[in-house]
Amino acid sequence: MMTKRQVAQHKPGTAMTIGGPLPHRHRMIAQSGLARLLAGVSISAAALALAAIPQQARAQAVNGTPTVQFGADAPVRTTTSDSFNVTANDALIDWAVTDNTVFLNSGTTHTFARDGGAYTVLNRVSSSPLSGTLAISGRVQSDPQGKIWFYNPGGWVISNGATIDVGSLVLTANPIQVTSTAPDGQKFLGSNGEIRFGQAAVGSSVTVSSGASISASQSNSYVALVAPRVVQAGSVTSNGSTAYVAAGAVDIKINNGLFDIVVSNGTDDPNGVVHTGSTTGTVNNSSSATPQGIYLVAVPRNDAMTMLVSGNLGYNSASSANIVGGKITLSSGHDTPGGVIDLSRGGAKGDLAISNATFLSDVDAAASRALTVTGTDTFRGRLTLNAQNGATGGSITVGGNISVAAGFDAHADGIGARAADPLDNTLLAAGVRGAN
Questions:
Q1: Average model confidence (pLDDT) for the chain?
Q2: Bridge-based pairing state of the strands 327-332 and 362-367
Q3: Count of alpha carbons within 13 Å of 349, Cβ hemisphere only?
Q4: What pairing do the DSSP bridges indicate for beta strands 249-255 and 258-265?
Q5: Residues with Cβ < 8 Å from 51, sequence gap 6 or more?
Q6: pLDDT, tens digit, for every residue of 209-218?
Q7: What three-state secondary structure class fits 360?
Q8: 130, 64, 125, 80: which is closest to 101 by C-alpha?
Q9: For the purposes of burial, counting CB atoms within 10 Å of the CB of 380, is it exposed (0-12), middle (13-18) or buried (19 or more)?
């Protein structure tokens, strides 16, 4: 038993004997002995020994406990990384999250890999202390064949300084329907190959913060952010197609490189989609290349909604930064089945506001109500504007053709357009009332 003086002098974490603390040399021997012990025992025995280490020494990259439902081995977990070896085409990992706000800690990595073949991993938050957003603050990475999906009922925040570098990516606050009895490779898809995003919680969102970076560099890759509110203020690069979809519930199919988006329940968010960052990619201009596109789609449910678009969007060519390729679709209040805006489908209260934006590719923009273009906006390719209740604008520089269409008895006026090449520009219906 220690004397009161010995107790007072004892420092937490110092090895003690009945007579007092061990000398430094003895402490080193004790530590090396523990290392030899752990090296020579079974995994289960080592786990018991590690369990005795204080909690702060066992912190993980992801603040939660994973349960592999199918398609992957048990993770390899350290204080700085969580790594999963995927063993099938589909893998489902349920996470019981233990932190109120942070899913992946800053300075840590969350890694996925498979020995050959494409695969999809759904990381599904099954329980959380709160219903709000969870932050990804570290690095998520996979090999080029990995399609990595994340679902949390409250949504996600990709923090300033965080990076995601995967084959393809889904971040969503909408539950993804899983059919565990379906064949491997079809467990996350419907009968038509669509991803089935169920009803999201009101107020949930997905945000890419300024200073955050997302890269999907695999050929024909995709990035999809799906929630009632989607905010993109960071940097997103895809070697395929990108979609920001604001909806309560939606089916999304990736068909020959293009997004087929059909909203079954709209969003109650006042903006739906807010874009202020950079969404770009490198376009493949060969005749055999899979089509590429960038989609911003928001459909209101009951209240009026105004999608806000600024920043940089579009594709550069690998051979020349001046070659226009790919397509940008901005749709407020309309579905985009087959990758094309359907003016007859969607909510009737969708406004679209474009301000101080640069578009590197052809643009199709439509609003089920009003469309405005303010500030100074540059369209390197063709521009088509379609608004049911009118289109008004500021200063627009257009590299290709511009077409402005307004609904019956509406107007398209105030749009000042200047062609980058006067020989390659046609201005339709600018300043003309009732231009259909």
A1: 81
A2: parallel
A3: 13
A4: antiparallel
A5: none
A6: 999 999 998 8
A7: coil
A8: 130
A9: buried
